[in-house]
């Protein structure tokens, strides 16, 4: 009986030793292949690289003396404008149009143009084009039914923001 107790305790010591060795090996392997604080857990891209799915910024800038632009509708893969759907004279609003791989994406935007008295004097309609395959963003099909003029500007490096500036007609 004493012999069996010795074998059992020796066997358990042997099993405990193997478990301890395996645990130490696990710690060594984990420390070797883990991502330390000096290495990020993701791949960093520089600012000049483009992504398969990317979002472009489109600014509408109201440089009129007294007109206000109100966003009426957006159709397509665009966010609602920030900071506001109302663009007072001297104000700017931004739209963010997402892309779908290397495909061109478009969003249609319609705005009302109001006088200082909040009376509608016409409208502005345009298409926001995110040409992700060529890393470009621009306004197209700009249609105006009010006495203003619009100056679209394609996105350019490093800012990469397409702009549509609205001016008074003098």
Number of helices: 1
- N-end to C-end Cα span: 112 Å
Order of strands across the main sheet: 3-2-5-6-7
Instruction: Please state the CA-atom Rg, rounded to the nearest Å.
Output: 31 Å
The portion of residues forming beta strands comes to 35-45%
Instruction: Work out the count of structural domains.
Output: 2
Q: How many individual β-strands?
A: 9
- As for the CATH topology of the largest domain, it is Mutm (Fpg) Protein, Chain: A, domain 2
Uncertain residue segments:
1-7, 39-51
Shape verdict: elongated
Q: Name the helix and strand elements from N-terminus to C-terminus, one letter apiece.
A: HEEEEEEEEE
Mean pLDDT: 80
Helix content: 10-25%
How would a crystallographer describe the biggest sheet?
5 strands, antiparallel
Question: In CATH terms, what is the architecture of the largest domain?
Answer: Sandwich
Structural class: alpha+beta
Query: What's the CATH class of the largest domain, please?
Result: Mainly Beta
Keywords: Membrane, Transmembrane, Transmembrane helix
